[in-house]
Amino acid sequence: MDNDLSINDVKTSVAIVAEINISENLVAEVVNPIDIEFTPKLNMQFDTEDEAYDFYNAYGGKVGFSIRKDYANKSRKTGNITISKFVCSKQGFRVKDKRDIHTRKPRAETRTSCSVLMQIRYDRKKGKYVVYNFVESHNHPMIIEECTHMMPSQRRISVAQAIDVELACESGVPLGNAFESMSRQAGGRQSIGYTKVDQQNFLRTRDRLDSDEMITNIFWADSRMIIDYGYFGDIVTFDTTYKLVQSNRPFMAFLGLNHHRETAVFELALMYDETANSFAWLFDSFLNAMSGKAPQTILTDQDGAMAKALAQVMPRTRHLLCTWHIMANAQKHVGTIFRNDEGIKSVLSQFMYCYDDKDDFCIQWDVMLRDYNVVGNTWLNNLLGLREK
Which of 23, 92, 303, 321 is at a distance of 20 to 30 A from 69, taking alpha carbons? Predict the structure, then answer.
């Protein structure tokens, strides 16, 4: 046997031995080298709970295990955290899901009831958080140093990476393509420091919070709305014409008709802006609230960002344009062109209700453009491109 083993060979061998020992109900510790200054100690002090968490997370990253916050107690009087407990991510066991019996490939158990933890409590006299309990010994192998940066508690999207993700999203680049491109720039997936799921979660969080971490987009649907949607949600109108007077933020509604031809409200939303990302978040939230049931047909205005989001989130839903919005936009864009007794509404109504044949529609449209001398009108040409809606 060759005695010249590399460090990687040794680490691999140790990890294999550790796994064998655990399978035989023996405890094996495989620990990455760590400086004594990074090891928690009893009575160690921190200014804030976040500072204690970051310290313990850095320690976990160097040793080779991921951490999570198990619980935190708050004072009823002040609302400040008095006791907090950080544990190894393999602590305890996952709660049994009753739906597992219907799952073809249930998730494998990854926890080992590891007892490693660090507990802190607030000392009023010192005005500090003090470590009062620390358990160091694991019952499972550690992650090798080359892979610790991809553990859940260690993954981070840096400011520079966040900017790249946002630019790619706003430019219409698919998230998968953007992730692969950034991975190559970083030297491979193992070096980028986050996963595709982290990237998706970042964009969702960004769409809900502003720079001050305040809520931006919100929607609500009560039980009555959800029940009504189950009965009458085949055709839905998404109305964005309402505005809040003070903040001027879009107030939107998902509406329909019940069996008495009365308006049924399925969902309401208060939005920070009307970007494609915000609309995608809203439509995705709508589907989640309605158990994944998408409407067969949805009627909206001519907003391009909305159309992009609908195609992404509800690809099988037929997207049509609301005639009321078309008329309102026509009055605004070309109302001055049709200043005769008929008016723009009368002219466009013919194309909405009178021509079922495609050839007849196109012939009469060309006649209308020539009669009113608007052959090169951009808005009308764009409207013609949307005639199927």
Answer: 23
Structure tokens at 344: 């723009």
Computed over its alpha carbons, how large is the radius of gyration of the chain? 30
Report the distance separating Cα 257 and Cα 262, nearest Å.
5
- Which residues is 135 bridged to in the sheet? 117
Instruction: Find, among 84, 87, 88, the residue nearest to 49 by Cα.
Output: 84
> 276-289 and 304-313 helices cross at what angle (nearest 10)?
40
What percent of the chain has pLDDT above 90? 26
Residue with the larger pLDDT of the pair 30 and 139: 139
Closest CA to 224 of 269, 258, 260: 258
Q: Which residue has the higher pLDDT, 383 or 7?
A: 383
| DSSP single-letter state for residue 134 | E
For the sheet with 318-321, list strands across it. 218-220, 263-270, 250-257, 235-243, 297-300, 318-321
pLDDT band at residue 314 under the 50/70/90 scheme: very high
Contact between 48 and 129 under an 8 Å Cβ cutoff? The reply is: yes
CB 120, CB 40: distance < 8 Å: no
State how beta strands 297-300 and 235-243 pair: parallel
Token couple for 156 = 């981070």
Confidence at residue 23, expressed as pLDDT on a 0 to 100 scale: 35
Distance set, CA 327 to CA 208, 237, 257, 333, 376 (Å): 33, 16, 22, 10, 20
C-alpha 192/C-alpha 149 separation (Å) is 9
Look at residue 387 and tell me whether its pLDDT is greater than 90.
no
Q: What is the pTM of this model?
A: 0.46
CA–CA separation, 389 and 383 (whole Å): 10
CA dist 273 and 350 (Å) reads 35
**In this structure, what are the phi and psi dihedrals at residue 285, rounded to the nearest 5 degrees?**
-65, -40
pLDDT for residue 30: 42
C-alpha pair distances (Å), 286 with each of 99, 199, 232, 302: 24, 21, 15, 20
- 174-227 pLDDT, tens digit per residue, is 777 877 877 777 777 666 777 777 777 766 666 556 544 556 678 888 888 999
Closest to 111 in 3D by CA, of 238, 22, 227, 224 = 22
44-64: average pLDDT: 92
What token pair was written down for 355? 């021509």
